[in-house]
Amino acid sequence: MKALNELTLFAEAAKHGSFSRVANNMDMTPAAVSASIKRLEEQVGFPLFVRTTRRLSLTGEGELFLTKVNRALEILKEGVEDIANARGELTGNIYVSAPSDFGRNLLLDWIDEFTELYDNITVKLELSDKIVDMYSKPVDIAIRYGQLPDSNMIAIPLCSSNVRVLCASPEYIRTHPPILHPTDLEQHNCISFMVADTIHNQWHLMCQEERQTASVTGRLSANDGDVVRRLALKGKGIVNKSLMDVSQDIIDGKLRKILPDWEGESVPLYMVCADKRQLRPIIKVFQVFLQQKCCSQFEKVSQALNH
C-alpha cells in the first residue's frame, strides 16, 4: 500500500501547502514526507510541486494530477466503506453542512446520539447560514430550509410541514402592547435576519383567505440565525423564525407564539446532496435517523402550541 500512502501524502501536502504540517498531522518527519513526494514524482515522471524557502505550490501538472488523485482516493474510501457495510459493519465519514441555529440547538445533540449508536461512523459538522457550494466543497449532505433553486440537487424531506412563526419572550409580551393583527407589528421592535446586505424585513402571513405582508423595523438585526433567536430569548423583540429552530424554546416556555391564528411562510426542511451516488449506506441510515428526530420534535412543539 506504499503507492496509496504516497498519493494520500501528496493530496494532504497540496491541501496544506506544507510538508511540515502534513508531517505533524501524520506523525512523520518532514524529511520522510519530502522523500515520499519525491518518489511519487519519479514514478509519474513530472514535478508535482514548486518548492521555495517560503512556500510550496503545485505545478501545472500537479494541479491536473491532484484532481484525479482526489477522485481516486474518494473511490477507494467508498470501496472500503462498501465492503464494511456489506459485512454489516456501518463505517465511514459524513461531512454535514447545516444552518447555524438548527445546527447548534438541535442537530448537534442528535449527531452526538447518532455517533454513540454507530461507533465506526464519524461526522464532520460545518455550520453556516450561507448556502455552501456542494460542487466545490467536499460536503456529503447539507441541511437546508425552503425550496431549492438548483433542480439538479437531490432533496430528501426531513420536515415538510415546517413553517415560520412569530414569537417573542414572555417578558417582551408582558411589557409591550398586545399584537392582535400583523399591522400591529409596525409599533414593535422586530429583529430581522440579514444575508449579506439584504435584511429580511418583509414578513408574510396568512389567516384563512386574508394575506398580509408586514414591513417590520427594529433596532437589531443579525446575519446569524442563532443570534436572532438569542436576542428574542433576551426579550429584545419579536422574531420570525423557522418553527424547528425555536421548537425547544416554545416547548420549554422560553418563547411564545404571537398571532396564533396567522400562519407564516412554509419552510420545509430538506437533506440535500449533489448527486444520488452520494447516498451511501451510512448516509441513508443518517437520513432515516434525522427524519425520525425531526418528526418527533415537530410533534412535541405542535402539542405545546395546541395547549
Question: How would you describe the overall organization of this protein?
Answer:
Keywords: DNA-binding, Transcription, Transcription regulation. It holds the Pfam family HTH_1. The chain has 307 residues and is α+β, with helices and mostly antiparallel strands. The protein has 3 domains: 1-86, Arc Repressor Mutant, subunit A (Orthogonal Bundle), CATH 1.10.10.10; 92-161 and 269-306, D-Maltodextrin-Binding Protein, domain 2, CATH 3.40.190; 163-266, D-Maltodextrin-Binding Protein, domain 2 (3-Layer(aba) Sandwich), CATH 3.40.190. It contains 9 helices and 16 strands. The chain has helices at residues 2-16, 19-25, 30-44, 60-86, 100-117, 170-175, 225-233, 247-251, 281-306; strands at 49-51, 56-58, 92-98, 121-127, 141-145, 154-159, 164-168, 192-195, 198-200, 202-207, 210-215, 221-222, 239-242, 256-257, 263-264, 269-273. β8 and β9 form a beta hairpin. The mean pLDDT is 88.
What count of structural domains? 3
Fold-level CATH name of the largest domain: D-Maltodextrin-Binding Protein, domain 2
Strand arrangement, major sheet: 4-3-5-16-6
Count of distinct strands: 16
Beta percentage is 15-25%
